[in-house]
Design a protein that fits this description.
By secondary structure, this protein is α+β, with helices and mostly antiparallel strands. The chain folds into two domains: 2-203 and 278-309, no CATH class; 212-277, no CATH class. Helices cover 63% and strands 9% of the residues. It is elongated.
Length: 310
């Protein structure tokens, strides 16, 4: 057991922020109790032993909590980054207390490494636990308004993207905390930078994989059906030459299909979509990109430390 005990700067980092660690553990425990209670309430039978078929207040409350939890977890990476940049790094640099660690036979590299490693370990364990808790509640209400697999909130909170994004916050905080040696300023800049990076990543995520296309003849009839769980990205009409036109083309003049076909040579309608099977590949691709950026930022943070402190 002694080999597992924390020593040196690692023990100091845990000791300094033990209240935050206890708060995280308590929040996770409370979240687990709340999710299990809401799941049981949402599935609870009535007095006659039959499951509720009418209004279900437990289900409604669970759905509301899952929706707001998904929206809230999107802000977790910037918050983690702000904590690393501010209380863990910039505050010590600003006050000069980091020099005390160097007098205890700890190198600057070991000092920064202890901060990053402790923050990363807690971040990975905590965010992975949050993903599990979210999926436990989301599994009961998924596929409803704003809670589809591709919606903002459920997408970020229910997969490895959340873990990778939180690690990105740690890396940004480790770099900005050294560049801006003022606690509040470092926290603000880290939160802003992390949010902008994730916003950019989210804007490109549905370009990682090619969309699938479903077509239906203009006059009706059979065609490739659109899966009910699909994420629709584009819709319109096709001409006989394969040219794509906006979906409103047939309604600019006479909405009758025959007139539209005569005027524009439209032969079919199309829909571009991502099927449910694209969920995990997209999650893994986006997570990989974020982790690669995280590794680059951590490398830059240690290079900066070496250039300034030796």
């Amino acid at each position: 057991m002694s080999t597992l005990a924390l020593t040196g700067p690692y023990w100091v980092a845990v000791r300094q922020h033990r209240r935050v660690l206890r708060t995280v553990a308590g929040a996770l425990a409370a979240g687990l109790v709340a999710v299990v209670a809401l799941r049981l309430w949402a599935n609870s039978p009535d007095a006659a032993g039959r499951y509720v078929t009418g209004p279900n207040h437990g289900y409604d409350l669970l759905r509301l909590c899952v929706q707001y939890a998904g929206d809230g977890l999107r802000f977790l990476p910037p918050l983690i980054g702000a904590f690393v940049a501010g209380p863990m790094l910039a505050r010590e640099v600003e006050s000069g207390t980091w020099r005390l660690a160097l007098t205890q036979s700890a190198t600057p590299r070991a000092w920064l490494g202890s901060k990053v490693l402790v923050a990363s370990a807690v971040t990975v364990l905590g965010s992975a636990a949050l993903v599990g808790l979210y999926r436990l509640g989301w599994a009961r209400v998924s596929g409803t308004y704003r809670l589809y697999w591709h919606d903002q909130g459920p997408y970020e909170a229910a997969g490895p993207v959340l873990v990778a994004s939180c690690l990105l916050g740690v890396a940004v905080g480790a770099l900005v905390g050294q560049l801006i040696r003022r606690t509040l300023a470092a926290m603000a800049v880290t939160g802003l930078v992390t949010g902008l990076v994730l916003l950019t990543s989210g804007s490109f995520r549905w370009s990682f994989l090619a969309v699938e296309t479903a077509t239906v003849p203009l006059g009706g009839g059979t065609g490739q059906p659109l899966p009910p769980s699909a994420y629709l990205t584009d819709i319109g009409v096709l001409t006989s030459t394969g040219e794509r036109l906006p979906g409103y083309t047939c309604f600019e003049g006479d909405p009758e299909a025959g007139v539209c076909k005569a005027l524009t040579n439209v032969t079919a309608r199309y829909a571009d979509f991502h099927p449910l099977s694209h969920y995990w590949p997209t999650q893994l691709l986006e997570s990989g990109i974020i982790l690669a950026l995280t590794a680059g930022l951590l490398y830059a943070a240690f290079r900066l430390l070496r250039a300034r402190r030796g």
